[in-house]
Give the backbone structure.
Amino acid sequence: MKSMTGYGRGESENGELRLTVEIKTVNNRYCEIIIKQPRQYMALEDKIKKYISAHIERGRVEVFINTKEKAEKTGEIKINFAQALAYDKALAQLSKEVGTEYQPDVYRLFNLPDVICHEDSEEDLDAIWLMLEEALKEALAQHLQMRQKEGDLICADMLQKLQNLENFAAEVEKRAPMVAENYREKLTSRLNEVLGAAELDQERLAQEVAIFGEKCCIDEELVRLKSHFTQFREIITAKGPVGRKLDFLIQEMNRETNTIGSKANDLAITSAVVEMKSELEKLREQVQNIE
């Protein structure tokens, strides 16, 4: 089981370039990959996303790619002669209109917009991808190690909370058979106070107790709850993403717990249900952090 929170950093370099990749993830219902990279590497974005999604299945993933050139590059200088001649012709006409002698100035033309074009040499994207892949591999290894370590801690915490739930459920199961008998004793006592010396109809009393016992019976809910506990233990130790499955299972546990609380009609069981709901809420919060 892995956490959805993690960080990793990787580097790769050759004789001309040092490339750094940082990966940061936080909680998200789905896998959302956001890449911040130099514009000239945009063509590699799909490759990067596929590489990352093969290792990360859930979470908001932010990838930062930075480069630093180890040696200065000299790109090709190109002159837009057509633009320069157009400027020269326009300046000559302007001089004629204002009545001054036109003296061509090459340096002035050189500095006018769009006359000089600086073209960087094209990047070898295949070579860049090999460097990127190496840096991504290192960053992902660190990142996944961090996620696994945090995931193990979350797993231990969740198993402890599950044990607490099982203990409370055991208390409820032990208390449940006493509810109907306690109701019989209280009802008998109240009827004796009301009727005084009059004879109590035992058959009617038994019927009332039976009806009450049927209403407050929580056997089915307890059986389903114990089944959910078993499934939870199996899922939490399984390989691969388990967050959504556990989230659904916690919802089902919460549903059964609420039903027990509404049917029990007993102070001790109600108190145990309150504790169970508290543990379930803590579990639900933790599940939001795992893949």
Q: What stands out?
A: The mean pLDDT is 84.
